[in-house]
Amino acid sequence: MPICHLDERALIHLQGPEAEHFLQNVITTDLSALQNGECRPGALLMPQGKILFDFLISRAGSDVLRIECRADVAADLVKRLTLYRLRAKVDISDIKQRSIAVSWETDSSPSESESTPIDGRFDKNLNVRRHYGDTPDADSHKMRWDELRIAHAVAESGRDFALGDAFPHDVLYDQNGGVGLKKGCYVGQEVVSRMHHRGTARRRLLTASGAADLPPPGTDLRADGKIVGTLGTVAGSKALAIVRIDKVKEAMDASIPVLADQTAVTFAIPQWASFTFPVSSDEAG
To answer: How far apart are alpha carbons 200 and 153 in whole angstroms?
Structure first.
């Protein structure tokens, strides 16, 4: 069972009789579907629909919701949530010095627990668990966690995308439960809903494979000299990448290589995703 400590992560607790109602009207996740013992991806959006903060959310007791986010933006997220709180009966607190770890591929399936929720972004058979509170000793380098995220197309802000620069559809939140497409209003909901129902999402997270080891995150991906995307997390010759799937498809159809610096890159849509590469007029005919 690989275990990795995530020192760059932090926890925020929201507690009170109106905590869930408050968050349901603010974030992308549909909390009515959030079960005990699981965590789901979520985001607080800008009014224009782009991701201002990304996180995992889970239940931590009666009338308590727990947000796990990047430690470097936790204080800013608390301030933003406090701004939206108004008169809602909810206390928002940034939990200091709390260990966070992740484990996966356990031989046995531990019972669902509020302190070890399953990470809903992954296939349940992998049994990816977050550990809050008393965390087990680490036995794996963070590279193994990066490799797992790449293999299963799980993006996180920082190396995979910049906050304020990506829509939920770009990072597959419409595919992995990060957006409640049938829930009511929340900040940025109109833009996300319009993008979804019109089918206008063209930037998508894909897994990338290089002909050799790939350059660092943030490297532009180019086809015939034109930028078609950007590399995210990299582990050797494998990576995550947010690309224009229409431009990548055009390059594939024309046998034009997509390059990261001088390294040729191929792309794959995650097996669990429901979208496809756009169909050309010839293919449609």
So the answer is: 21
